[in-house]
Write a structure and sequence with these properties.
50% helix; binds iron/sulfur cluster
Length: 126
């Protein structure tokens, strides 16, 4: 599976809300797969990924909020000490995000400007 870096955060905070029905159904399926098969190999994408493929903000392979998501991606990469093209098990990436982002000030630093931040802040990691 290909994932852009900050989606390692969004997946763990997903509560069934999305941009539209198609996106939400697809994201639900991706989250279920990663929950049921945490050993799934994830490759760090530098652009649109397997979640973006069903997003209404994906304009011919590029995110319409590119500047915002690239800033979040870069900060997530730094926090997790990952690089584009790295491949790691999902459970490794997810646990690193919990330890190095959700449990620290990095969460606010990376996600504070996101429209979903208030919701994600209240959402516990299961
Ligand atoms: S605040 Fe935004 S970027 Fe951060 S985890 Fe939530 S949806 Fe993803
Ligand atoms: S296209 Fe943009 S808004 Fe949509 S899932 Fe991808 S990064 Fe997020």
């Amino acid at each position: 599976m290909n994932l852009r870096p900050h989606h390692a955060l969004c997946i763990q905070k997903f509560t069934g809300h999305g941009y539209d029905d198609r996106f939400t159904e697809h994201m639900t399926q991706v989250c279920r797969t990663l929950r049921d098969f945490p050993e799934t190999e994830v490759t760090v994408a530098s652009g649109c990924d397997d979640l973006c493929s069903a997003c209404p903000n994906n304009r011919e392979g590029s995110c319409s909020t590119l500047q915002k998501v690239e800033t979040m991606d870069a900060a997530t990469l730094r926090a997790l000490s990952l690089r584009p093209g790295d491949t790691v098990p999902w459970q490794t990436m997810a646990s690193a995000a919990r330890a190095k982002i959700f449990s620290t000030d990095e969460f606010t630093h990376i996600c504070g400007s996101c429209e979903w931040y208030g919701l994600c802040l209240k959402t516990p990691i299961i």
